[in-house]
Amino acid sequence: MPVAEDLVAPVRERRLSLLRDGRGDSAEAHERRLLAAARPALPVLNWLGQFARPLMKVPRLGWVTADPLIARALLNDPEHLTLLSEGGVGHLWAQILGDWVYDLFDGPGHHDLRTRSRELFTEKTSRAFVDRAWGERLGRARAAFEAGEPLDLADLSRVLVGQMVTTLLGLPVETGRADPDDAYREIFATGEELAAIALGTTASTELPPEVIASARAIVERLTGHIDAVYASADRDTIIGRCRELGLGLRETKGLATLLMVAGTETAASAMARLAALLVDSGEQHRLLADPSHREDAIREALRVTSPAPIIGRSVMADLEIGGRTLRAGDRVLILTWTANNLAGGFRVDRPYLPQLRQLWFGAGRHLCLGGPLARAELGAILDLLLGDGRPIRVARRRYGHRVLIPAYAELVVCKDAAPPR
Ligand code: HEM
Question: Which of 9, 231, 266, 341 could be joined to 307 by an S-S link, Cβ 3.0–4.6 Å?
């Protein structure tokens, strides 16, 4: 198995930059501090990961790799690796949702689910979801921002993602709040709560009974309404579309839970980090000078932030890879953040990297289902930030502490110059 040599060439330079890591205001320094604030073990793992080429065995963790080609090979090998046994997210979800997860998340039912849900998020449907869920709120945010008001993009991202979940799942929303955004903040927080169950599972995915009980209560809060709306849900909601695609009630509720867990924190994390990267790297000026790099900027933000920094798998059957033998029962951690960042920092004109493809969305049969939606969401944020052709600056920032997905708790951005008269 060849190692991705052309990707790892800048590694030496990056090891040196690790020494400077804690200091400075570079985009890289902020990203690394953000990771450390989220989970103190992450920088250590990422640092280790730079040596984990092609693979390295780490006591108590198992096999670790940050090699993009090995990562892809592992993610594309359902014969030897699974996410369902101890150590994978499937095992986590089976304890919460029930044994049917074993079929639907990675078993024969998964193939059927993915085949049927292939058309859920295309470029076109994703843009339509963004327009419908966010159009009005983004319009207001943009008008205020361009008029000179500071904008906490971390907070707005959580509100927008809450709104997206509401739209996708047709969730009933409480009205009549003093601040209508509060209802969406709460929905986001519920998703966060559910995802937090995965916190501390880097070493084990065996959940204690009280955690299982509270997770089940959260799932019920988010998907309980689906029983009543499944039969009549509009075709332009995800529930209606799932029904039209032939997914039963149980699969639809399972998929809804997955969307909630997989597509909330990750998306919100990427949105605010995109803004910070544009400013910290100075690349916003190059993007403003040449807006044809819009899609490249989105891809680069996803690569550099890699909001799902680790993907876990378990070995089902012995396998030879990268000159090492992985034994049945071993665990594997794929360090996507490290692998994706080997190529260097955020550059809006960096060409597509074929070795990586879109490793930030995983690979193989579990490749992110919401990739086109995430890209459409980031595109809308880019337009909000730079759509009037003027640069932005970061006025204030706070990293999120002890969160599953590294993210800004607060990122206040402002327009640099006065609006044109
Ligand atoms: C920047 C945003 C996002 C990132 C970085 C991301 C990343 C990922 C990754 C790495 C996986 C694979 C996990 C594995 O192999 O174990 C995944 C799976 C998934 N993602 Fe995303 N995701 C994002 C946004 C979204 C959105 C917006 C949605 C939908 C609303 C979504 C829905 C899913 C689903 C349903 C899966 C499970 C697919 C399966 O198991 O077959 N994701 N995502």
Answer: 266
